[in-house]
Amino acid sequence: MPENFYLDNADIKFHLMNVGLEDVVRDREHDFTQAEKFPDAPVDFKDALDSYDKVLAMVGEICGENIAPRAASVDEEGAVCENGKVSYAAGTVENLKDLVKAQVMGVMLPRQYGGLNYPVTIYSMMTEMVSRADCSLQNLFGLQDIAETLNRFATDEQKARYLPRFCTGEADGAMSLTEPEAGSDLQAVQLKARFDPEKNQWLLNGMKRFITNGCAKIHLVLARSEEGTKDGRGLSMFVCERGPQLIVRRIENKLGIHGSPTCELQFNDVPAELVGDRRRGLTRYVMSLMNGARVAISSQALGVAEAAWRCGYKYAKEREQFGKAILKFPAVYEMLVSNRAQLAAGRALLFEATKWVDRRDNAEEAVNHAEGVNPALKQREKAYTKIAAELTPLTKAMLTELANKVAYDTIQIHGGTGFMKDFPAERYYRDARITNIYEGTTQLQHVAAIGGVMLRILDPVMAEISKLPFEGKLRRLASMVDLGHEKVQRAVKIVDAKKDPEFFDLMARRLCDMETYVLCGYLMLRGAFQDKTREAVAERYILDVMPTLETHFDVISRGDVSLIDNRETILAM
Where is average pLDDT lowest: 130-139, 505-514, 561-570? Predict the structure, then answer.
């Protein structure tokens, strides 16, 4: 039977139809007036949903029929670098051809450049499926955020020159940010940008390391443009093209995602153009780029977790021990059931986050194109920005840690065979491991999110769901989540009252996890309210996470500083 990674996963279509995209699509389509200019633009929301549904089904077919069968050979062959030239695995080349032919290389870009003008939410659904088929391919398909950054901040002339090439697949992109001494601490970037007045040209010099798809034709580069500066205020964003002055020194020999080349680059007077304003490279443009990357990696993590779970479930149904399938043993089915509920919650969180990202992007565009000052519009943009900025790190933290857990459990279900390359379980395990490291480790996601947790940014979102007229079992479950919500609010007050920065930092992970449990609990309840068949998975998720929330609350309410007080003694053992 032909595989289709969209049609075989009803959860994706459920969110397409129920996450609440009508305002997002109406704003993105300029109240559907784009249909007057572009024949393929939707005439109303129903038409838009039908279009998304058809394209998702097409991408799902490509993923199931073409990309997934090539994944093992791509992993085995990997990308190679010879004499400064990087070559993709043969399967990766074919995968990219398939995606270009399907015309999905400019999913979010405006139609005037050849894009589909789709919301981030729909793009995230595609990246989940691509990642399920081949996790490493998402690192090439998912770099569309580079084109989106140019669309938001480049000049009209730059956009006209670069964006059509992304849409046709003629050009690909790379984010050239990280350096040997500037990983998470990007304000330490030292690659220099100097302006040559005789050539009327910016020139880039220095090194970049761990650059995903560093062999790309078009690079967005974070560089130090202001002499004498040492912090983020001296950094600007530049765009440049691959040429003889941009040298790939080597590619990394990695644990996983072998189909995606991770490069070390040397810039020798590489001609470049400034993107946006000087000195705002890190504070404005890279932060926007990184927020998009958080969403993309969350989708990637969800995709590889879905692949791993299905692999474990299939093996558990087929493998017999002691006269019956191992799926019938509680120790096995408990892992599968619990992980399935977690995946459903993670998917709900992801598409809730992308909905708010879409709202933020639409509001930002409306503000930028408004005639004069519109206080109400500006206030809406500000509110959407705060919610999106809070949801994206919480989502990445949850889904990337979950991907690692599901992949780990999948090997456990396989037993010894899971450690062998005869089954894809070990590949999923290797591929998942990077997701909670790159584009900001889980610990940095907590740093990014904790301020919003303390300010209760998401309380209005959760309050709106809590007011739904739940009945019966859902009402009882909602009461449990309501109580959890109250405990999060109390925990925040306890931490705030201590006025102890070290205790605050130590409790940040617990507070972020508690916030995530409650928000996902509400989202699962909303899903069950919309579709009663989802009641069982909502119940399982809530019953699984609430005891952990209680434990975190107990630690915080005790003001437990034993780890702070005893850390030197314990570390010295």
Answer: 561-570
Alpha helices in 370-500 (DSSP H): 375-414, 425-432, 442-455, 459-466, 473-498
CB 279 within 8 A of CB 233: yes
Is CATH 1.20.120 what the domain over 458-566 is classified as, yes or no?
yes
Q: Residue 246 pairs with which residues in a beta bridge? A: 267
Selection from 565, 440, 449 nearest residue 503 by Cα:
565
Q: Is the pLDDT of residue 87 over 70?
A: yes
Q: Does domain 173-279 have CATH number 2.60.120.920?
A: no
Give the whole-angstrom CA distance, residue 332 versus residue 318.
13
Helix H or strand E encompassing 26: helix 22-28
Q: Provide the token pair at 328.
A: 């019938």
d(CA 397, CA 283): 22
Going from the C-alpha of 517 to that of each of 388, 478, 526, 536, 541, the distances in angstroms are 17, 13, 14, 17, 9
3-state per-residue secondary structure call for 200-225:
CEEEEEEEEEEEECCCCCEEEEEEEC
**C-beta separation of 38 from 116 below 8 A:** no
Residues forming CATH 2.40.110.10 domain(s) in the chain: 173-279
Confidence (pLDDT) at 565? 81
For the chain, percent of residues with pLDDT exceeding 90: 91
How does DSSP assign 513-538, residue by residue? Answer: HHHHHHHHHHHHHHHHHH-GGGHHHH
Rounded CA-CA distance 130/108 in Å is 16
* Range list for CATH 1.20.120 in the chain: 458-566
Q: Facing residues of 272 across strands?
A: 202, 240
The confidence score (pLDDT) of residue 568 equals: 87
pLDDT the model gives residue 1: 56
Beta bridge partners of residue 80, listed in sequence order: 87
227-231, 346-350, 466-470: lowest mean pLDDT where? 227-231
Which letter does DSSP use for residue 261 in this model? -
CA dist 511 → 195, 351, 399 (Å): 46, 22, 17
- Measured between alpha carbons, how far is residue 37 from residues 116, 159, 167, 524, 528 in Å? 14, 20, 19, 40, 40
Q: What is the mean pLDDT of residues 206-226?
A: 96
pLDDT for 573: 85
Asked if pLDDT for residue 260 goes beyond 70, the answer is yes
Separation between Cα atoms, residue 118 and residue 385, nearest integer Å: 19
Token digits of residue 239: 């765009």
Measuring CA to CA, how many Å separate 191 from each of 269, 338, 440? 11, 46, 20
Chain-centroid distance, C-alpha 408? 20
Cα dihedral 435, 351, 292, 56 sign: positive
Residues 42 and 239: their CA atoms lie apart, in Å, by 33
